[in-house]
Amino acid sequence: RSGLKLSAIKKGTTHYASGLAHVTKAKAISDGLGYGYRVLGVVFIHGETDEQHGTTTYGAEVLEYANDLHADYSAISGQAQRVALFACQNASGYDKTVNGSVCTPTILLTTAVDNPTKIALVSPRYMLEHPDTLHMATYGNLWQGRRYGAALGHWVAMGALPDCLRPTSVAMEAGNTQVLVSFTVPSGQLVIDREE
Hints:
Structural class: alpha/beta
Strand order of the largest sheet: 1-2-3
Largest sheet: 3 strands, parallel
Number of helices: 5
Order of helices and strands: HEHHEHEHEE
Shape: globular
Distance between the termini: 36 Å
Number of strands: 5
Radius of gyration: 19 Å
Strand content: 5-15%
């Protein structure tokens, strides 16, 4: 369900219990058919409401949620492999002056970087079209789905969560004529398209 704070979907809530029920049923069906079963990860598209409400504990709550999902889903499936959290940064149009101290996209980036074996930051969403400033246009959902697919594919093929492209420093050049940005580039090369 959309529009909920993380505290409304974490362990101990009906939404969390619903997820456990789905995993339990899927495991029973797989067992009944003689197939193996494991949970690769959980897609996590979240943050707007916690940002709007100024949730200062958001990073700790995301990590707790990731750890709870792993513990509970692994207990059901019997798997040893980590149940990873695959997250994206929100790009909402909320008025940041209401709670200027909380920026969930930045908190999520920091939490993923600090916990690289538990949380994969799949991508930001700021560059995708949001016609109503909150929900992505159809093309954005397609693009985001491809990013999640690539991250899950990396997890399956490599056995490790993918790292994310991210800025490591930003500075204004003397004279305020250029902004200098340094990036962590996990693979390949960073190319800036100047045509658009």
